[in-house]
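Recap from last week: sequence in, structure out.
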Amino acid sequence: MAKPLDFSDLTGKGRKKEFTPQYFNDKEGALPKHIQEKADLVNKQLHQHEVKPQPLEQVNTQGFYSPDKTPDKKQPQPTGMGYPIQQTPAGDELMQLFPTPLLICPYPVDYTKELEWIRNQECRKENQGNDGGQGQPIHYNRQSEDTFVLDRPELSNIRAFIEAKLHEFVTKIYASTDKLVITQSWLNKSKKGESHHEHVHPNSMISGVWYPQIHEQMPPIQFRSKGQRDVSLQTDKYNTFNSATFMLPMKKGELILFPSNLTHSVPANLGEEERISLSFNTWPKGNMGDVKSLTYLPFDRCV
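Predicted structure tokens:
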């Protein structure tokens, strides 16, 4: 068996320049085209974070109008993973508090052999659910009999790629020193008429899905907001502040990473081509928490 491909450069270890995530539409940290296309599904105005400063003769250092005082020159603030801020037409600042991170990563090399192996893997029998309320039973997608597929040598390159992106997600986005390990992994296959019910991933920290066989006309993955209320305001158009769900069409070879408690589902496949994805769960290696903050979780004492 050939040695897995080296994706270590994706972790940042082989880079001379420190990776610094940018805001949406930051000119110096422009998003890849495939991610920007997805971001355009949401109101573009919500991603305009740059705050235009007022003329110096109108604003003093405290931010109040003062026609006879020029403020001290403000030093530019470093960009990073702070809260996205945009300026409203009235000149106010609008922030997005506690955003949910979701990372989209295209697979960089050909995976024809891996796809052939995946297509030949056996899945469980057809999973028929309850009546959908229209006199027709619901047909759910099928999972692979093997629920540790990333342990297979045939997918060693895919696993190496996923582990590199997990490292980047945890260290750069969450700013954590924990190392996540893949605990369980399985294939999902959806033929015509099959869907995936709404769910979360228990006993997992970060979950992910890799898409070996899909295109943007196939059913997207749909996420549901954790902050959805039982009352709502009347809405003229949807944006990131008032939407309860977000449908994310995926491209062949893309990987997405997200918190395991983020609710998601997949609508029924209406096409003739089978939709195939690979899902996995993770958990931090070793003990968790911190002794001083009284959050220490010694797993070695629990076995």
